[in-house]
Each structure stands twice: as C-alpha cells, then as structure tokens.
Amino acid sequence: MTTSFAPLTVAIGDLTAHPANVRSNSPETYDPENIAHLKASIAVLGLLQPLLVQKLDGKYAVLAGGRRHAALKELVADKAAKEFAAKTKVDCRLVPEDCDVTTALSLAENVTQAPMNAIDEFEAFARMMELDGQTPETIAKTFGTTVAAVKGRLRYGLIHPDIRAAARAKVITLDTMKAFAEHPSQEVQREVYEALTKDGGYLQAYTVRQALKSRGVQVSDDIGAFVRADYEERGGAVAADLLEDHSVLEDAALVETILLEKLGAAAEEARMRLGFAWADAMVRYDYTTMAEYGRVYPGPVEPDEAAQKRIDEITAELEKLQLEMEDEGLEDGAYNAIYDRVDALEEEARDLQEAYSAEDLARAGVIASWSGGQVTLHVGLVRPEDIVKQEGVRGSSANTCGEEAPHAGEITYPASLAEDLKTERAMALGAAMALHPEATLDLTLFKLVSDVLASGMSVTQAIKIDARKEYRSHAKIDEIDETSLDQVAAAHDALDLLWLDDTRAPADQFAAFRALEAGEKAKLVAFATASTTQSCFARDRQRDSLMHAFEIEVMPDIRAHWTPNAALFNRFKKAWLLKILGEDLGLAQEAVTLASSSKKEIVAFCDKLFAEPFATLTDAQRAAVAAWCPPMMQTAGVAFDEAEPTAETPEPDSEVAQAA
To answer: What is the pLDDT confidence band of residue 586, given thresholds at 50, 70 and 90?
Structure first.
C-alpha cells in the first residue's frame, strides 16, 4: 500500500503537525535533549528518510516523522545552519486525502523503527571509521554525542569478528563480548577466546577479563602507570587502544622486571636510611611465607639536644595546626592537607624518640612490596635462619620463640600513642578513685603504713605517697574525651577546702583539717591520691595483684569514665578502623561500605557512632560499642603487660582490612 504514496518535496515552512500522529500527545518525545542527536545527524547527512505527509487545510501535515520535523524546525531557527531555511525543501511521501488508515500508518512507522541491535551499532561505527574514513570526532558530530561515547562503541565494534559473531548468535552474552575489549589486540582476543571455549564450557565476562590480564597490563592499572615510562624507554611493546586508558603493555615479564627493580631500589634506600643489614623486594607480600619471619621493633631512646629541639618545634607546629583544623569554615582540601602534615610531623617525632638496637639492625632488613597502588615497606623483618642463630639472646626484641610474626591486620601501638593511652587510662582511674573515697582512703593508708612497717618490697609502685602531683603529658590533650576530666572537676568542687586558707599558718590549717568529718577527709585523701596515680595500662595480676584487684573494684568498666573519640581514631590507620568496625563491633557491612571512603570520613563515622550509638544497631552491636576500648586499657579485660612500643603494623590481610 505504501508503494502508491507519491514522492514530492515540501518546503519546511509548509509542514505542520498531523492530529493523527500517535506521538503528538507525547511531549517528552520532542524534548530538546531527545531532538539534539537527530538535529546533528540531519545537519551533516541530510534527511535520510522521507516524511509521510497528508494535505490538510493547504498545509502538509506530518503523519509520520514528527521528531524529524521538530529537528528540521530547530535547524531553520538555528542561524548557524545556513543551508536550512523555511523555503528549504525536503523529501516527503504523500498520503491521499481520502485515506482512512492514517493512525495505523503512523503507528506502523513508529513501531517498526526499533532501536538498532547493539552489535549492529558497534559495527556501524567501526565501518564508518574503517571504510568511510570517518574519525571519532566527525562521528560524534554526526550523531550529536561525545567523542568518548563514540570511542567506547568503536572499541566493541573492533572486537575480533569471530567473537562478535558468537555474540550475535547468542553463543556468548553481550557483556562477555564486551569483556574482550579489555585488550585492544584482535589476535590476543582470538587466542584467549579459543583457549576458553575449547572444552565447550560456559564463558563468563569475569573469566575473560582474568585471562586477558595474563596477556599484558593496562596503562591505567596502578602497576602499568608506575612502570610505563621505564617500560617504553626499554622498547616494550604497547597495544594501543582508541581509549588511551585501555592501551596495554604487552610484555608482562618486562613489566614485572621493572617493578621488582623499582621495589628493590625503594627497599635499598630504606635499608641505608634506617641502617638495616639487608633489603629485598617482592611483587606481592606473601603472608604464608612471611609468617616464618621474625620482626624487631624500635625501642624508646632519650633524644639528644638537637633531636629534643626538633621535637619541641614539632610540638609547637602541631599545636598551631590543631587550631587551624578547628576552623569550621576550612575547605576539605585544606583540611586534608593539614591532616597529612600532622601525620608526617607525628611520625617524625616518633622517629626521633625511637630507635632499633645495634643487635637488631645487624640481622634485620626491609622488604618492599606493591600494595594498594603504591610501594609498601615492611621494616624490621628477621629471616628464619637468623632467628635460629639468635635464639635465646637476652634483650632481643625479635620474635625468636617459634611464634608467628604479628598478624598482618593486628592493631599494634606506636610508642607515642601507647604513652598517650596510658595517660588517658590514668585519668580515668583517677576519676574512679575520686568517686570511691572510702576504698581509696583505705588503699592510701594501707600503702603508707605497709611501706614503713613491712619488710621487703613495696606492696605497689602504682601510687606514690610523696605528696607530689603526677605530671601527665599528652600530645593531644585538648582533643581527648573529657568525661574523666569533668568527673574529677566535679569531685574537686565537692571538696571542703575552707581549712586550706593561705592566710593561716600551717599549724592552724592542720587544726582545721583535723576538725573535718571523716567522710570529708576521705574525699580529700582520695582526690590527692588520685592525682598522684601514674600513667598506666591494665595491671598484670602476676606483677601487681593489689592494684589489679583494686582497679576492678573501683573501675570495672573504663567506659564509665572515658569514651573513644576522633582524637583516638585519627591516630589509627584506616585498616585498623575497618578491622575494629568489622571484627570487634560486628559492623562488617558498614566496614565494607566504608572501605572506599577516606580516612577522614571513617573517623567521623566512628566518632559519631561512639558519641551516640545509632538506633539501627542490633543489641549485640550496641553492647559491643558500649564496651569497646583498646584491650590494654580495660581493667577486667585480657591481661596485658606494659606495652612495648612498636613500629607501624605490617600490611593488613583480613578481608575487611584488605578492602582499605
């Protein structure tokens, strides 16, 4: 029937909409964004398909081709498209005025104009480039799209013909076909396809991508970017892709050789700087093999005059930076820059106050590996044969007793952080003692009397009765949780200090003191004793059974006096925070979700979580959050010897920590 429709040309200005067009009541069809691509195509290629029109009231009404008509009108209005004007004629086909199937005709044309098959589209783009000499830029202009989008389609159109044929025949899925574009070489694509399909198994996109990885390294891969300059300088072959990021360094062996050389150089530089005996490199840190290695850690040292001067300078700069970070108007970029500077300064301060022993340096070394897109140094490692040689040597800080090296995801505490945590625990214990005056009075009097009257060693070294207030230093005293400070302040405000009148002579002060009620005296003694309590971790029952039992009595839960906050979490590695969330608090899903976030965002999440536990927590999660603290701080927790300062932890290997 359509063959009887007479061809004719009609001026664009004489065209109008037809009431029977099935799309005439669909405004979204003519949205500017929907017309833009069509307008661009007509501007370059002209009107490829005639409009179907019918004579109505002296005008030619567009029965089928409303979008093309809209695009033509926009071209007329566009002064830049000079070849299109109201008088410009376009090809049409005329439907007789007495035709009674106009709606059916309009519907038929719109329905039959189904989107192109995806593979057809990919191949059409490729033919335009290969046969017609088109470029991605001219193709993008023709279809009103971006050059990047055209290149993406072209890549799929340039996949090996056999693989495209398999996708067209539905032997493999479209996604599986697309996976072959990960390598720009059609020959490599064909070889991998034949190898994976020779046994007739079901082919998946994931399997294809994994197989292609063995055939080279993409330049966008972290290793590819790291070695590319050296690789090209040595003449390594590069398979170029339309999208530069998908180009491939084809010589995987050369890539690994260069990577190991660069890792080895980094390890050697660290060895010389730190004074270790040996250096080595491995592409991936093999935890199974490395479990046989020991590790030594730096111990605290007294800084010399020059080092102390630098420590003082760092302390002053940290205080200044802390004030800057408190500015709520600070942009994220500026905040992150200050944050990185703080980390660097704290690390420098630790290095000035810690050192390896000469014995440890003589047998330990450094291994450099590639992890998380960067060179990672594992320092202080002791080879298995050297552990045997040194077994039984006193004073060594290496793991020489056949035990495994520390678990890679284990949280260890650098010396500076350990000292600060000791201070925070002492403050919490002081608050607990001030809130239990009778028990603290008994303890104080017992120590005073037993130290004088009993023979042998003192019953405890944890408190001093020399009437000197304990000096407590802390790197971030202005940031720590203030619960214990508030409790101590409240206890101080409740003291009766009228007897302590500076205008009175000491004898008169003593007389007033003796006149106090017993309960008031107990509060005063408790407060004074609490103020002399030294920085501490949880007591070892074997070493100090008295204080172990006393602390459990007055402070069964440190969380009543102390809450973890951002000041603590800021000093933890990102991997540690994820491990705490996933393993200690039972928030595994949250840990996985946060793994891709910045450390700053994770710290904020943890700070908010502990400040006010979320309503969505389960009972078990809520209990874990309410009880958590570093294990050596909890009174009734696992026995923990006075912590030896440690170096930074090895690479994390738990499932959650690896996500960091």
So the answer is: very high
Cα–Cα distance between 239 and 541 in angstroms, integer?
66
Per-residue confidence band for 607, with pLDDT thresholds at 50, 70 and 90? very high
Residues 574 and 495 grouped into a single domain: no
Structural domain contains residue 51: yes
Most confident range (mean pLDDT) of 25-29, 193-197, 476-480 is 193-197
- Give the separation between CA 417 and CA 419, rounded to whole angstroms: 5
Residues 265 and 351 in one domain: yes
Residue in 420, 432, 524, 435 with CA at minimum distance from that of residue 472? 420
In this predicted model, what pLDDT tens digit does every residue of 280-292 receive, in sequence order? 998 887 766 777 8
Q: What is the pTM of this model?
A: 0.42
Q: Tokens representing 415?
A: 């010396």
**91 phi/psi in degrees, rounded to 5:** -70, 135
pLDDT at 588 exceeding the cut of 50 = yes
Cα gap 182→220, rounded to integer Å: 11
DSSP sequence for 143-181:
HT--HHHHHHHHHHHTS-HHHHHHHHTTSS-HHHHHHGG
Closest CA to 30 of 41, 19, 42, 38: 38
Q: Which of 529, 528, 527, 530 is nearest to 426 (CA)?
A: 530
| Dihedral angle sign, alpha carbons of residues 274, 279, 285, 289 | negative
For residue 587, the enclosing domain spans 554-633
User: Is 149 within the bounds of a domain?
Assistant: no
pLDDT in tens, 231-282: 999 999 888 877 677 788 988 889 989 999 999 999 999 999 989 999 999 8
Residue 630 to residues 371, 481, 559, 646, Cα–Cα distance (Å): 27, 14, 11, 15
Higher pLDDT, 393 or 219: 219
Instruction: Answer yes or no: are the C-beta atoms of 44 and 141 closer than 8 Å.
Output: yes
Residue 423 has pLDDT above 70, yes or no: yes
Using alpha carbons only, give the angle 435, 441, 445 rounded to the nearest 5 degrees.
160
Does one domain contain both 428 and 360?
no
Are 234 and 266 contacting, i.e. CB atoms less than 8 angstroms apart? no
Does residue 225 lie in a domain region?
no
Name the domain boundary from 112, 131, 156: 112
Shared domain for 581 and 609, answered yes or no, is yes
Residue 284 CA, chain-centre distance (Å), reads 20
Q: Name the band, by pLDDT with cuts 50, 70 and 90, for residue 43.
A: confident
Q: How far apart are CA 134 and CA 166, in angstroms?
A: 27
Please work out, in degrees rounded to the nearest 5, the angle formed at the alpha carbon of residue 16 by the alpha carbons of 14 and 20.
145
Q: Is the pLDDT of residue 629 over 70?
A: yes
Using DSSP, state whether 585 is helix, strand or coil: coil
- Do residues 50 and 105 both lie within one domain? yes
**CA atoms of 513 and 522, how far apart (whole Å):** 12
Indicate the residue type of 237: A
Number of domains in the chain: 4
Domain annotation covers residue 86 = yes
Most confidently modeled range among 112-116, 151-155, 335-339, 506-510: 335-339
